[in-house]
Design goal:
Blueprint (H helix, E strand, L loop, with lengths): L7 H5 L10 H9 L9 E5 L4 H14 L3 E5 L11 E5 H10 L8 H20 L7 H15 L4 E5 L17 E4 L7 H4 L3 H8 L9 E3 L9 H17 L4 E3 L6 E6 L2 E6 L2 E5 L4 H14 L5 H9 L8 E5 L2 E4 L5 H13 L9 E5 L7 H11 L4 E7 L9 H13 L2 H4 L12 E4 L2 H15 L3 E4 L2 H17 L4
Parallel strand pairs: 1-4, 1-5, 2-4, 5-6, 6-7, 12-16, 13-14, 13-16, 14-15
Antiparallel strand pairs: 2-3, 8-9, 9-10, 11-12
Helix pairs in contact: 3-4, 3-10, 3-11, 5-6, 8-9, 12-13, 13-14, 16-17
């Protein structure tokens, strides 16, 4: 996804594709006098939940009075979202009110991009390979965080871990491994053990490691066990103390559209995010931060987190929920949330908007949706996100038809997916689909759900918010 407001040098770097490896990054950082060596960092890898865990950790550290740099990807609406500084409690409260707060300013972004570009030219003159877009942005982030004298930085890996450009951090404060799943298997391996080996590549000698239970939804038990063995082996080889969130999980006490409350280690917490998986993410973040921040910072920091596009309720009347579920695990978590909120089943038949990337396991995602959907459906609109990797809306509609025809739910008159083929509609234009769906949802007081891709959410979120505002429902 390209933001036209980003410096042209970074926009055009997409043509260099995705290439794992640290040689290019190390060469570039050497030219830049290694800004990363001046950073104290928490390094986060995993398949699902990296962004949420990063946000939880950032908020707790900020409430504890730290000036925190946050580096995440991809962005939803603005390129500058990827590089952000939250300065203490006041900064955290400002971020809560204004989601643009703390983002790298245009002048700094352009100035540091120009500096990186000048060093890339030197590398090319020496016959070295051009860095990838992610490597360039990571270098800009390192420069910015070092320049602003951040007390600590929370770094989310881009892809994998072992060969990810963020893995030049030599002595992180801690490494955090979130939920593992089958994503980017063409690059990271086809088994969970292989994927764990790549994610676990961020573990450094003597560094404390905090890891999510490998036994997750849509993961075969034998594969989960293999992943667990792999991570334990890496930690042992690096003499890195490894703590699992097994036995340290959160237990929900209440949940509504404003968030959920839970108990963890005999203490009560509240978060504004939804779903079982956010309880797991929150408990992992609490476990990791327990030795680094005060108890007050744990309670207050985590309560102020609002991470866009993760079961995000941007309206309650009508209910409008955006979720970036883009793989089988994510979709399983989404439908689990629907089951956790029985009041949603009492609403009018819902609007669903879905768009996906063609390189995802779309067939399995749809099988999960069809078999587990539990709320009345009025209309399912399939769209084509503005992304090269996007699946065309008509192809997604065909995939939906196949999933429905292969499912008993389609033929069961008691199922929410009964005869749902008649409810499928393909529209290429995301904006048009959003405006029409919001209009119907407001008119009929029906819930609106958007799922399938963070890229889709980034394209659609502003349109939906504007349409809700125009209709007096925001």
């Amino acid at each position: 996804m390209i933001d036209q407001n980003a410096p042209e040098f970074l926009q055009t770097a997409n043509k260099f594709g995705i290439k794992l490896g640290l040689e290019r990054m190390n060469s570039l950082l050497e030219k830049l006098s290694h800004p990363e060596k001046h950073l104290s960092a928490f390094h986060i890898a995993g398949t699902n939940g990296k962004g949420s865990v990063s946000a939880y950790c950032t908020s707790m550290l900020a409430w504890d009075g730290k000036k925190v740099g946050l580096y995440t990807s991809p962005f939803l609406e603005r390129f500058s979202e990827r590089i952000r500084i939250i300065d203490g409690r006041e900064g955290l409260l400002s971020w809560e009110k204004d989601d643009t707060y703390g983002e790298i300013d245009p002048d700094s972004l352009r100035r540091l991009s120009d500096l990186v570009e000048s060093k890339v030219k030197e590398l090319l003159e020496e016959g070295q390979e051009h860095p990838t877009e992610f490597e360039l942005v990571t270098a800009v982030a390192f420069l910015y965080f070092a320049e602003k004298n951040c007390d600590v930085v929370v770094l989310e890996t881009g892809l994998g871990g072992r060969l990810d450009s963020t893995n030049v951090i030599e002595k992180p404060e801690a490494c955090i491994i979130t939920a593992l799943g089958y994503d980017h298997t063409d690059r990271l391996g086809n088994t969970l053990g292989e994927i764990a080996g790549e994610k676990g590549g961020i573990i450094k000698k003597g560094c404390p490691v905090f890891a999510m239970d490998t036994y997750q939804r849509e993961v075969l038990p034998e594969e989960a066990e293999q992943a667990k063995i792999v991570l334990e082996k890496i930690a042992k080889e690096k003499n890195a103390p490894l703590t699992w969130n097994i036995g340290n999980k959160a237990e929900r006490t209440t949940q509504d559209l404003s968030g959920q409350c839970f108990s963890w280690k005999e203490s009560n917490y509240r978060i504004r995010m939804h779903g079982d998986y956010q309880l797991e993410n929150a408990s992992l973040a609490l476990l990791a931060m327990e030795s680094f921040v005060s108890e007050e910072a744990m309670h207050e920091g985590i309560a102020h987190v609002l991470w866009k596009g993760r079961l995000e309720a941007i309206s309650q009347e009508p209910p409008v929920i955006l979720d970036g579920a883009h793989n089988p695990q994510g979709v399983t978590s989404f439908v689990s949330f629907l089951h956790e909120m029985p009041e949603l089943a009492e609403e009018e038949p819902c609007e669903v908007i879905m768009g996906v990337m063609a390189d995802k396991d779309v067939g399995r995602m749809l099988d999960i949706l069809v078999e587990n959907w539990c709320v009345p459906v009025g209309r399912i609109t399939l769209v084509t996100p503005n992304q090269k990797r996007a699946m065309a809306s008509k192809d997604l509609r065909d995939a939906w038809k196949t999933a429905l025809l292969n499912s008993e739910a389609f033929y069961n008159s008691g199922s929410c997916m009964y005869n749902a083929i008649d409810k499928l509609h393909a529209i290429d234009d995301v904006g048009e689909a959003c405006r029409k769906a919001v209009k119907r949802a407001v008119k009929d007081h029906s819930p609106l759900y958007m799922i399938g891709s963070l890229y889709l959410l980034g394209e659609a979120r502003g349109v939906i918010e504007e349409e809700l505002k125009n209709r007096g429902n925001k």
